[in-house]
Amino acid sequence: MTHKQIIGLALTLGAGIGAMAVQSCRKDAPTAPSSSTSAITSDAALFKLITETDPFSGYTLFPNADAVTKGTLNGSEAHQPLVRVSINAKALSALQGGKLPAGAKFPDGSVIVKEIRNTSGVTTEMTVIYKDSGNPLAGNGWLWADFSPTGSVGYSFTGRGSECTSCHSRERGPQNDSVRTFERQKG
User: Fold this and answer.
1) Of all residues in the chain, what percent carry a pLDDT higher than 70?
2) Are residues 90 and 150 in the same domain?
3) Are residue 25 and residue 62 in the same domain, yes or no?
4) Which residues touch 31 (CB under 8 Å, ≥6 apart)?
């Protein structure tokens, strides 16, 4: 390679690297994903997450629990008459043998949806908890909300779970990161 060819190659490489640097600094250039899960800033965003972005219809039924359960847990009159609980893949990944290991917490981005159904089996409301431990609106590390199937807000996550956490802090709730469905598991 001649001296002139080496200089030409160096100039070409330099121009390419410079173009890449300029492209990476442009405002519309893709950015690295954020490690924060605080993408949920409204009830509408949470409803969109569970119905469109990561639809709960594709979640896994809560392990080792009946698909549909009747009755309430000790200390609770909420969520009647029938419930069906499902969890997203992120929440499922935290479990070992269907249980949350002792001292463990669900990772941020975990979602648990409880469909409340009438005696005909029709979903009348959905309660949702979304793990976002760094969110100032979180109660016990979760965003707590309640929606109708059409997205009307029955309980806003801006309430910080004030209507939810007292029950979820009973019985085995504290040892299971506030998730009481573990108390419904078989075996």
Assistant:
1) 73
2) yes
3) no
4) none
